[in-house]
From TrEMBL:
Source organism superkingdom: Eukaryota
Coiled-coil parts of chain: none
CDD domains associated with the record: F-box_AtSKIP3-like (cd22162)
Entries under PROSITE patterns matching the protein: FBOX (PS50181)
Domain F-box: 1-47
Protein name in UniProt: F-box domain-containing protein
Amino acid sequence: MDYFGLMPEGCLSEILSYTSPADAARLSVISRGFKSAAESDVVWEKFLPSDYLHIISKSNTLLSVPSKKELYFSLCDSPILTDGGKLSFSLDKKTGKKCFMVSARELAISWGDTPHYWGWSSHPDSRFSEVAILRFVCWLDMRGKIETRILSKRTKYVVYLVFKLACGFYGLDTANTFVRFVDCESDGDAEERASVVSLSRQEGPGENRSKRRVDGWMEIEMGSFFNDAGEDGDVEARLMEIRRLFAKGGLIVQGMEFRPE
């Protein structure tokens, strides 16, 4: 007998709201009562970030969704641009935690404003209006920064460089990366513990290599950090190859993504 089906839907919705999106989906299978309650706005309002309305208000994207559940999955599957196109925002489907990508235009890229070294162009696969295209440099150095207060609290984040390699790319075998809290660790100290990554998928000892995403782009893990109460100021991710000063070209950068682990 389905005893849960005998309980008031409001009670079941309240119970589900204290679980997770994944749990709500599983529980909706075992009982008709839970299945009905799992469609409730009460449940999915709790799964959405507490400041989701504020975030959406900073976007020009028109979200026409009839329910909180549909809004949740829309934000999981279709990132929206905020802050004048500087950031993109989405949700992690399993947890509802906040994901942000910092656009290439918002990255601090050495020589990024010099047309001989870097170009800027639209790209049909990019969520942003422009991507950065590496033409030729010997000194590759880029940084992305975000405020911890806008991220989900008590959450471990991983930072990824989101990129593609143009045909005929060169000099992009490996680079060094690190992630640091700007107010808590110096640039020099962070450099000493930097990890080696492989942009061109030629994996070597101790290296992380790039992986293909479902959206067709590549990503490489730059590092991770734990966002506790969102009171640690700015967190910065840096990718650099400034020791072996040979020519590099063919890197197409969409941005840096800060995503829950």
